[in-house]
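Design a sequence for this backbone.
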């Protein structure tokens, strides 16, 4: 999955520190903030920064090194942790609102959950594509997918925007420098989503236009005169919340709660579809591999196992009516011209029916362990 916000922020504050110094350097601007054309000058500077392909290559290399040093990954987060996010990080307003000490990790968990959900839905849709469109599972899958996507869409940009607004409204003693705020901007709204490969999933639901508007609004505000004054704080709130269409925090948190509920329902229906598909595939293998009306089937075998396999792989060797001399004889007389005589009576293949020979190989390889009718449990998916 794409790098988490915490990973990106770590890179910008260490490896990308000098780049940020040049970006927020006051002396690099040709026009004073009080002069006309300041916004255009700032926009050109930001566009040059966002389209620096050499810088993008350095970020990719640095993130690979950061990930290699971590022992855990946000991709392992189970869906049940969404309830913990609602309780401990994205709290109700009366309980303190956003926990800004842990919010960067929380946003990474949400991204990981969305990537997991999108991949799970894609697998279920592929497994269900040959089923009729009127099938209730298909309709339920699509409806839950639309509902979860609708709830996730406002959360992604809104939570990130509130984190940035907090940086501008802190007290003087807790306020960060402009460079650190810009590092957080690049982590929460990166100019380019860095995917690992063509199969990677981008969880970003909003358009690049909204991302660019937020980036420019914040960068212009940071480079303006006295950006942390009370008047300027109201200006940045108006730009981000009003102009960018960000809803109020209680509505965003309610969307998170609903998203958590839809994800649980969606996980159940996807598991049901995938289990049914796997069971159907197993039944097809059994029916095609062991035809009931086969002319070469050995009907003398007693079949009691649920998979239709004989309990004794080679019942002939256990037949007491066969003289021990025949069972222990290793090699026939070389002068014997009876071509029907086996070369080696100790080889069990001689006594096995051709179908039984294949079945014995399957049992030894453990193939049938993955084809049992009950299929995998929901917790394994």
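Sequence:
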């Amino acid at each position: 999955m794409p790098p988490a916000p915490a990973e990106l922020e770590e890179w910008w504050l260490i490896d990308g520190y000098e780049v940020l110094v040049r970006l927020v350097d006051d002396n690099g601007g040709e026009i004073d903030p009080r002069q006309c054309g300041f916004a255009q000058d700032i926009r050109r500077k930001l566009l040059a920064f966002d389209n620096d392909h050499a810088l993008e290559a350095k970020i990719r290399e640095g993130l690979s090194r950061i990930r290699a040093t971590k022992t855990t990954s946000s991709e392992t987060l189970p869906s049940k942790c969404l309830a913990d996010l609602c309780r401990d990080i994205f709290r109700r307003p009366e309980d303190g609102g956003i926990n800004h000490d842990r919010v960067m990790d929380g946003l990474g968990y949400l991204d990981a959950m969305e990537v997991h959900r999108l991949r799970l839905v894609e697998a279920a849709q592929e497994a269900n594509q040959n089923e009729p469109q009127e099938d209730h599972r298909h309709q339920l899958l699509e409806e839950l997918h639309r509902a979860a996507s609708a709830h996730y869409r406002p959360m992604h940009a809104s939570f990130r925007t509130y984190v940035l607004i907090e940086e501008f409204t802190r007290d003087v003693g807790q306020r960060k420098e402009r460079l650190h705020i810009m590092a957080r901007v690049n982590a929460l709204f990166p100019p380019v989503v860095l995917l690992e490969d063509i199969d990677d999933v981008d969880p970003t639901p909003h358009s690049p236009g909204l991302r660019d508007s937020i980036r420019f609004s914040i960068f212009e505000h940071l480079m303006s005169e006295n950006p942390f004054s009370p008047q300027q704080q109201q200006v940045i709130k108006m730009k981000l919340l009003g102009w960018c269409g960000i809803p109020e925090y209680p509505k965003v948190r309610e969307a998170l709660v609903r998203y958590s509920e839809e994800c649980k329902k969606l996980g159940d229906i996807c598991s049901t579809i995938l289990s049914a598909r796997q069971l159907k595939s197993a039944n097809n293998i059994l029916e095609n591999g062991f035809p009931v009306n086969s002319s070469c089937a050995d009907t003398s075998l007693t079949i009691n196992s649920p998979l239709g396999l004989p309990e004794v792989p080679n019942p002939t060797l256990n037949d007491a009516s066969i003289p021990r001399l025949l069972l222990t004889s290793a090699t026939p007389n070389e002068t014997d011209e009876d071509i029907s005589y086996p070369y080696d009576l100790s080889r069990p293949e001689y006594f096995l029916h051709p179908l039984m020979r294949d079945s014995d190989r399957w049992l030894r390889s453990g193939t049938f362990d993955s084809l049992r009718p009950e299929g995998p449990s929901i917790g394994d998916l």
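The two ends are 18 Å apart (CA to CA).
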